[in-house]
Amino acid sequence: MRNLKWIGVALGMLAGASAARADGPKELWHYYAAGSEKAGIEALIAFANKQNPDNQIVGKVIPGNAVEMRRQLQTAFMGNTPPAAYQSSMAFELKTFVDSGKLHDLSETWAKIKGDEIFPEGVQRVVKVDGKPYGIPYDLSLINNIFYSKAIFEKAGLQPPKDYEGLVAVCDKLRAAGVEPLGNAGGPFWSLYNFYAPLVSSVGTEGYYKIASGELGFDSPEFRKALELYRDTMVKCYAKNWSGKTWTQTADDVVNGNTGMFMMGAWAAAYFKQAGFAPVEKFDVFPAPGTEGKAIFQMDAFAVPEGPVDTLETAEKFVISAASAEGQATFAVPKGSLAPNVTVDPSIYDAVGAKFAKQLADASKANAVLPNLFFLLPTKVGTELGVQLEKFAIDPSDANESELISTLESLRQEAQAEGAYLKW
Amino acid sequence: MPDFQLMRRKLQTAGMTHAIFLSLPVTLFAIFYVYPIISTFNLSLHSWDGFSPTPKYVGLRNYVVLLHQSRFYHAVLNNISWLVFLLLGPTSLGLLLATLLDRGMKGEAVFRVVFFLPFTIPAVAVAAIWRWMYEPTGGLLTTILQSVELGGLAQNWLGDPSIVNFALMGSMLWWTTGFAFLVFFAGLRNIPVEYIEAARIEGATPWQVFWKVSFPLLWPSTIVVLGMAAVDAMRLFDIVWAMTNGGPAYASEVLATQMYDTAFGRFEMGRASAISVYLLVIAGLIIMPYIHQLAKRVQDAEAE
């Protein structure tokens, strides 16, 4: 009897706890687990909660990356307990969830924040599915720049190269000076992001979008040309043993003077700064050859799952705060990323950040803002492209080139037959 | 004259008691083991992205597609290499360490803790430690090799597709040997001293004592260690995923990581389920003889 009583008490407490949870702050799921990005999201949540005292939101870290987030979301959707809002990548990442009816149409919120005015056109198109917005952009990083160590360049008497010939010449000189020329890191993303520069150089902006929409085949002469340009320039320049390193380990190599250049997303600037490697003084950036005047970007947006009215209201208030100029700056400064909102005052950035901001603004005017191809492609095609490119970068043999082309081409045809491609 | 009614009543009551005691584990087993297996098999016959309301029935297509993928065979082969490695590597090293320590070394208690300690560390932490150990330029392993003039042996540990699996096995050896060591050490300590002494008096060399007396008597421990090693090889996921994500370019992929990548990296839940069904079948083929053998031994022991 006594046991039964205790079980009753325990059940009562559990019921109370879950009721409290339903009434308490709503959750924002993200995978900013440490360092500058964690500081960024915490600052943004604090800012939004101050603005919306009656609609508090709490951050919850989902350890890992987009893949772990998908797993967690899938379970949450099955149990009908999704968060109020979550960190999502752009384009296909949003589309998968939209197709299954899980995401809330943010058209009303978009109108309130004047989304069509405050976000560049290239940014808008990757958060809209069938013309309706499903994500609020807040974390943008350019991925077409090469970081370089100023001390190493000065010592070797080098200038940032403007074209591929120049890049290869710089690599040769760095190697002769005993420095590894160009850093890269293992995993399916980094070689792919590096490859975008030779790709755009070979197929142009239009060709880039044609690959994204499945119109241009992986067996086309243009794509093959891009692979060969990549092989003859960047792959030749890569540091010894690059594939066994994480990107932060390679960034350390630049800080320690072992590697001269590193083509990495803009987040590397924040890492350098944290390591005491000051922008402009110790390191600087230049656009990868063939991407001058263009901006290739990676971006995260807040997505809002369908849910009860009060949760939606909290989520809406949060994303409105996050989209405001002040909210965007609150996140971008500690994180070291760019605010997609063009009304944000450029003076918030440090010297290197300001360069990125100008690059994005100029590219916007020239209509040369290119979203990360990985997320424009159907998920299975994008993921396989990353894997195949890493393999090719490790061993750029003819056999690997043929395998890359045949594997991706058959996947493209399969995805096209399934109607999986989209014109972004 | 035996009282049949009383016996029947006793049996009935005993049967009821058994049924009541069994009901909870059987229910739990059905809910958490049997149902997911049936559900996974059902899902493997569908094409589903994990979110859309209705999975599309595709029959055995997922199974057939996998049989045409070199990526799938590569993962199966990797699982088999891991099986061989885990049956031989940590097991024999654990036995060696246990035997050395059993000889009554000085500081035995300290070594016991030192050998077992790595096994208490969670897989993700082991992966993080070894990612740094294996950093190819300034990592501990490369640095040590260079300091003893063996820099030529240093490798691109986790970045070279032909090396990565050995590197992962190295970290696994460090991590799991402690378990085999502990089981064997306990087993050795349980062998009656009289047996060893008798063998010695009969003039057996230490080598003969080990192989003719200790090792056969260690059979229960060996069965446990080998069984766990086989199970570990089949369900291997955490160390590989946390250290390489199955890369570079699928080189270190095993079936469990391929399943995870297919499910959540590519939204192909049906195909991922087919991988797990294949994994279940392969694991069953490998582990069932072991379970059968174990059950037979238990029966024999009970009969004695």
TrEMBL record, chain A:
Keywords: Periplasm, Signal, Transport. GO terms for cellular component: periplasmic space. Residues 1-22 form the signal peptide. Its main location: periplasm. It is found in: Periplasm. It holds the Pfam family SBP_bac_1. InterPro entries: Bact_solute-bd_prot1, SBP. Gene3D superfamilies: Periplasmic binding protein-like II. The keyword Signal applies. Belongs to the bacterial solute-binding protein 1 family. This is Putative ABC transporter substrate-binding protein.
UniProtKB/TrEMBL annotation, chain B:
The chain crosses the membrane at residues 20-38, 80-101, 113-133, 163-188, 209-231, 272-291. GO terms for biological process: transmembrane transport. Its main location: membrane. It is found in: Cell membrane. Residues 76-288 form the ABC transmembrane type-1 domain. It comes from the Bacteria. The keyword Cell membrane applies. Keywords: Cell membrane, Membrane, Transmembrane, Transmembrane helix, Transport. It is a multi-pass membrane protein. InterPro entries: ABC_transporter_permease, MetI-like, MetI-like_sf. The keyword Endoplasmic reticulum does not apply. Belongs to the binding-protein-dependent transport system permease family. This is ABC transmembrane type-1 domain-containing protein.
